[in-house]
Design a protein that fits this description.
The protein is mostly helical. It is built from three helices and no strands.
Length: about 80
């Protein structure tokens, strides 16, 4: 099998797979994003991190979140480089 044939077969199988799942996946995504209630796992995460899912996030809160994520990422990468030989 040549690479051209393999590429065409891959593309055809991808189109068939997308055609087969687009309606059920679209319905699921609509239910998830349009739903008013949160799942049990989401409620637990909200309670642990102290977030209110019904309120808007202010710019100050967003800035603190970005800075905290950046700091944790930098520390993680620094630790990863220390572990390497």
């Amino acid at each position: 099998m040549t690479t051209t044939t393999a590429g065409i077969l891959f593309l055809a199988s991808l189109v068939v797979a997308v055609a087969a799942v687009h309606v059920p996946l679209g319905d699921y995504m609509f239910r998830v994003f349009a739903g008013d209630h949160d799942s049990r796992a989401e409620r637990v995460v909200y309670r642990v991190i102290g977030a209110d899912p019904q309120s808007e996030q202010t710019w100050g809160s967003y800035a603190r979140s970005v800075l905290a994520f950046s700091a944790v990422s930098i520390l993680f990468l620094f630790g990863l480089q220390l572990v390497q030989g």
